[in-house]
From TrEMBL, chain A:
Pfam families: UreF (PF01730). Keywords: Chaperone, Nickel insertion. Coiled coil: none annotated. Belongs to the UreF family. The keyword Chaperone applies. This is Urease accessory protein UreF. It comes from Apiospora saccharicola. It comes from the Eukaryota. The lineage of its organism: Eukaryota, Fungi, Dikarya, Ascomycota, Pezizomycotina.
Automatic annotation (TrEMBL), chain B:
It comes from Apiospora saccharicola. Signal peptide: none annotated. The keyword Chaperone applies. This is Urease accessory protein ureg-like. HAMAP family: UreD. InterPro entries: UreD. Belongs to the UreD family. Keywords: Chaperone.
Length: 314, 328
């Protein structure tokens, strides 16, 4: 069935080009809007709020659908196996408390969560945004990111999850893209396919090339439907929220708190504000200007290998 | 009287060092130029020296707001250069708010040549705004040893990460002249510290540093630093496991008490690391070895890196004792 649709797409080269033009125009329009609007996430005015309320409910777009899939905890990336330094942080806090004799309890919400979100945003979010804005640059961005991850453990974790995500894209999403093209997103899916296919082939052939989670998540999030110019903010938000969710779930596994407390942390206005603020901070950061905003995070993640007992891979 | 200092370059803060190899494997300066506020001094060449030593100085021992230093270094095939400083590079608060102090270092190391850059740490004062970019291009089998470290400020005045902004970027590029391919980025290591009130972080910069007074990065690449890199990786994997317990009896511990000099040095160093709250990690990144460390006091950080480099001793052999002036 899908092969029939493929033929259709090939026949409709002109339609594909038209769709591509529409897409490029939409992106130009979006870029112009961004230029004239200094703050990345303007608060909706009372009037616009009223407008959206009075409108009849619009069904979520296809891109929202895929973003929700990507943010799902059941996405088979094996994320539960990684704590992004939390386990190491806890061990170091315990040993430092022993050394100084102070009873400083490690705090997840007041200490590790904001540190980890800040560090993750400053080191990787600009790559996500850049790959989203130009999916064809994914191989180059991935190479740059690989040069910037200076930590064996962090590198291993990112590559493992990136490859898992590429696997999901190949096995589950790519076969859908031809049917999605019927819905008028041919250009976008085609573009993402053209980007990711050679990239995964390169990966197979060399076996040494890396594939980091972040560049891939943005490319695959843009793959189902890039046509919505409003897409980037949700993608960036989902990317950081997924990190927060992974940290919170690791905290539950590490017996820091229970599942209800976990949801309270995720739902809290503080967590929301943190994610929004970090997205805003990195919105205009070019990938070459990324860096570590929390230097001690590199030490904790790098020293994870030295823990005597481990329940996580990072 | 002839001035003992080299002649000046034309633009403010500009400097250029060219190092070449003389017959009998002696490295020497081909040229050295500089302009205020940058100052470069190189002691007279001795026939026995392993590398040319250049002191990187600034007038008044620090950089004030708006100072721009732009130093270029070219090391010709098989020549060796060591760059050191005389004391911390102090970064003062700018007189006009918002003025950024910048230092840029561009280094080109030819095939078989080597640079050992072990300066004193940079000390950003309260309210300072600083950007530093150090870009290294390594050709063929060039070697590099680079130490970049930053302290929490003037501890005597109670400063503890009270700077406004700090950006430090190190890039190592591999240049392949024979194939003419695009330069390949091997490592990009950037630290971004934001102490301004616009920082969206809910914690103060001091809190995010978790009691560390100094952070450092050591980057090693090339044949002349290979044994040092292997040493760091081996010592890292030999560190005791965190949270492990020693179930041996006192008698069993006695039995294992006979140690090699390396083992007893390691025992002492690990004790000191625990006492000083020193944390470090080492990783192999695309043919470079990158070591990161942080310590509760500036002296603890200096002693630790000094002791590691002295124990392994290949830098002294390859570059001479003077290359390690700042880490002793």
């Amino acid at each position: 069935m899908s092969s029939q649709v493929r033929v259709e797409v090939n026949d409709g080269d002109a339609a594909e080009l038209e769709a591509e033009i529409a897409d490029l125009e939409a992106r130009l329009q979006f870029a112009k809007e961004r230029l004239s609007r200094p703050s990345p996430a303007p608060a909706p005015t009372a009037a616009s709020k009223h407008n959206t309320l009075s409108k009849s409910p619009t069904p979520p777009t296809s891109s929202h659908h895929f973003l929700l899939l990507l943010s799902d905890s059941a996405l088979p990336l094996g994320s539960f196996a990684f704590s992004s330094g939390l386990e190491s942080y806890l061990a170091h806090q315990r040993s430092s408390a022993r050394r100084t004799g102070q009873q400083s309890r490690p705090s997840f919400t007041a200490d590790f969560l904001p540190l980890s979100l800040s560090s993750y945003a400053s080191t990787t979010l600009p790559f996500v945004l850049a790959a989203h804005r130009d999916p064809t640059a994914v191989a180059d961005l991935d190479d740059q990111l690989d040069a910037a991850v200076i930590c064996t453990v962090g590198r291993r974790a990112s590559i493992a999850q990136g490859r898992a995500l590429l696997g999901i894209w190949e096995r589950s999403f790519v076969s859908l893209s031809s049917s999605a093209s019927v819905a008028g997103t041919a250009a976008a899916t085609g573009a993402a396919e053209e980007v990711l296919k050679p990239f995964s082939a390169l990966l197979r052939s060399t076996g040494s090339s890396s594939s980091s989670l972040s560049t891939l998540i943005s490319t695959s999030s843009s793959s189902p439907a890039i046509t919505e110019p409003q897409l980037p903010p949700p993608t960036a938000y989902v990317f950081l929220l997924s990190h927060a969710k992974a940290l919170v779930s690791a905290a539950v596994r590490a017996s820091l708190f229970g599942p209800y407390q976990a949801q309270r942390v995720l739902a809290s206005p503080e967590t929301q504000a943190l994610i929004t603020a970090f997205v805003a901070r990195e919105w205009d950061t070019p990938p070459e200007d990324t860096g570590q905003s929390v230097p001690v995070m590199d030490l904790w993640i790098g020293r994870h290998e030295m823990l005597y007992s481990r329940i996580f891979n990072s | 009287m002839i001035s003992p200092f080299p002649k000046s370059a034309s633009a403010a803060g500009e400097g250029h060092i060219v190092v070449k190899l003389l017959p009998h494997d002696v490295s020497a300066l081909e040229s050295i130029t500089y302009q205020y506020p940058l100052k470069l001094i190189s002691p007279t060449v001795k026939a026995t020296q392993q590398s040319v030593v250049v002191f990187l100085l600034s007038y008044g021992g620090g950089l004030v707001g708006g100072d721009q230093v732009n130093l270029k270094i070219d090391i010709q095939p098989f020549a060796r250069l060591s760059v050191v400083t005389q004391g911390h590079t102090k970064i003062f608060k700018p007189a006009i708010p918002g003025t950024i102090t910048r230092q840029k270092l561009s280094v080109n190391i030819q095939d078989g040549a080597a640079l050992c850059l072990l300066p004193d740490p940079v000390q950003p004062f309260e309210g300072s705004l600083y950007e530093q970019a150090q870009i290294f291009h390594l050709n063929g089998s060039a070697s590099l040893c680079l130490l970049d470290w930053v302290t929490h400020g003037r501890a005597a005045r109670g400063e503890n990460w009270d700077l406004l902004k700090w950006t430090g970027r190190n890039e190592i590029w591999f240049r392949n002249q024979t194939t003419g391919l695009k330069d390949r980025l091997l490592v990009r290591d950037t630290v971004l510290l934001d102490g301004t009130s616009e920082s969206p972080h809910p914690m103060s910069l001091q809190e995010t540093m978790h009691g560390h007074a100094i952070f450092g990065t050591l980057i090693l690449r090339g044949p002349l630093t290979r044994s040092l890199g292997e040493f760091f990786l081996a010592e890292f994997s030999a560190l005791p496991r965190i949270g492990a317990r020693d179930f041996r009896t006192a008698a069993e511990k006695e039995e294992g008490a006979e140690r090699s000099p390396l083992e007893s040095w390691r025992m002492g160093r690990i004790q000191q690391e625990i006492q000083d709250g020193l944390l470090w990690s080492a990783a192999n990144v695309r043919s470079c070895v990158v070591i990161k460390f942080g310590a509760a006091t500036v002296e603890a950080g200096r002693n630790w890196i000094g002791s590691m480099l002295a124990q392994e001793a290949s830098l002294q052999r390859n570059f001479g004792e003077d290359a390690l002036l700042c880490v002793r």
